[in-house]
Q: What sequence folds into this?
């Protein structure tokens, strides 16, 4: 069975050249749209009975007589606390790594406390995939899973994969208080938006730090006002990011800021503008990705309709992303800031990077071995 946001995008928009057709043509029996926990159970039960009566299973596409059939969508799970924790018994947890984060410790795992995103960015599918809503597990439920991870598996680092972690204030307060009470030898990393809890960010970062958070990943994406407006982000972006990083820096949090390059609206001096902002905002780590026109995003729909032009070919977008990273990490001051934070907070990371230096250099834009670049999704 295939699943994921690309599959879901195809169902919701009924694209002519649907990803589900590609999966099914390649030999996949069924494609799941949206959440698959209940769907996979139903499919397994049917298969165990020898009855492939898939027309009764909500949220899948399958083939009948050579034709793709789309069943009705499955409603989102009402209470995420009803889901069991992942069974990690046979998982090689001690083999997992996150070399892109200087804060990583071992053993390391990932976890999600919520599903959905409060933002509605025009380049992203997340808010459409999750039906424009954010659903939270209760703090107690998340802490029960963390208890298991620490006590049963000895986990010392968790990367929270929520699109925006703790976007509801009361939830964040309760979660941080419960985790701080446990006093575990545990650290964790979260995703954040520059404007999340604006006006209360100083307190938010204090709560996060007191509960073991040591890294905040901030999705900035663009700098100039026209681009920010077009992708549905605050046009005060630069000032908002600078303020956000100042509060994070006060708690000695590792700050990682992400950008995207090559938006149709971006000015020719986009790289210069990004670097100018970084000089002012002073993050510890940055990354930059070439824009990809993902299926079912507003940007891709406008490109298909001719409302906007691609402006920058994919290879040019890739080049711009590399230039941002090279210019940032060519600064001795920026490199020193990264080395100092790591030496002070997680010196073991240097030893874990031995043997992975080529990979580390490629991440920051110095690809000595000329790895194959990302492949653009063709516009159909």
A:
């Amino acid at each position: 069975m295939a699943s994921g946001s690309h599959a879901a995008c195809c169902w919701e928009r009924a694209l002519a050249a649907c990803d589900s057709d590609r999966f099914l043509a390649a030999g996949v029996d069924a494609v799941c749209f949206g959440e698959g926990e209940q769907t996979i159970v139903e499919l397994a039960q049917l298969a165990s009975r020898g009855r492939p009566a898939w027309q009764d299973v909500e949220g899948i596409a399958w083939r009948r007589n050579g034709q793709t059939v789309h069943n009705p969508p499955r409603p989102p799970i009402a209470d995420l606390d009803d889901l069991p924790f992942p069974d990690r018994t046979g998982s090689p947890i001690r083999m997992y790594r996150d070399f892109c984060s200087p804060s990583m410790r071992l053993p390391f795992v990932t976890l999600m406390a919520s599903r959905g995103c409060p933002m509605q960015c025009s380049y992203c599918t997340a808010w459409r995939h999750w039906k424009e809503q954010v659903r939270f597990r209760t703090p107690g439920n998340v802490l029960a899973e963390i208890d298991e991870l620490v006590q049963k598996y000895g986990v010392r680092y968790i990367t929270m994969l929520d699109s925006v972690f703790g976007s509801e204030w009361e939830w964040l307060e309760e979660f941080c208080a419960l985790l701080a009470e446990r006093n575990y030898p545990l650290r964790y990393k979260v995703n954040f938006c520059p404007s999340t809890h604006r006006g209360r960010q100083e307190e938010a970062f204090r709560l996060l730090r007191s509960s073991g958070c040591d890294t905040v990943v901030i999705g900035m994406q663009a700098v100039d006002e026209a681009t920010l407006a077009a992708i549905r982000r605050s046009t005060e972006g630069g000032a908002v990011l600078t303020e956000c990083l100042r509060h994070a820096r006060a708690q000695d949090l590792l700050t990682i800021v992400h950008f995207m390059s090559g938006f149709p609206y971006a000015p020719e001096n986009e790289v210069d503008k990004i670097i100018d902002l970084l000089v002012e905002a002073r993050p510890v780590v940055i990354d930059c990705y070439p824009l990809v026109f993902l299926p079912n995003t507003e940007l891709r729909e406008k490109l298909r309709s001719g409302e906007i032009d691609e402006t920058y070919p994919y290879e040019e977008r890739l080049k711009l992303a590399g230039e941002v990273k090279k210019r940032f990490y060519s600064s001795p001051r920026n490199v020193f800031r990264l080395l100092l934070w790591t030496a002070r907070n997680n010196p073991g990371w240097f030893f874990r990077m031995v043997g992975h230096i080529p990979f580390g250099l490629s991440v920051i834009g110095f690809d000595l071995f000329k790895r194959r670049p990302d492949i653009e999704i063709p516009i159909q």
Summary: The chain has two domains: 5-70, 85-363. Confidence is low (pLDDT under 50) at residues 1-17. The first strand starts at residue 31 and ends at 32. Residues 5-70 form one domain.
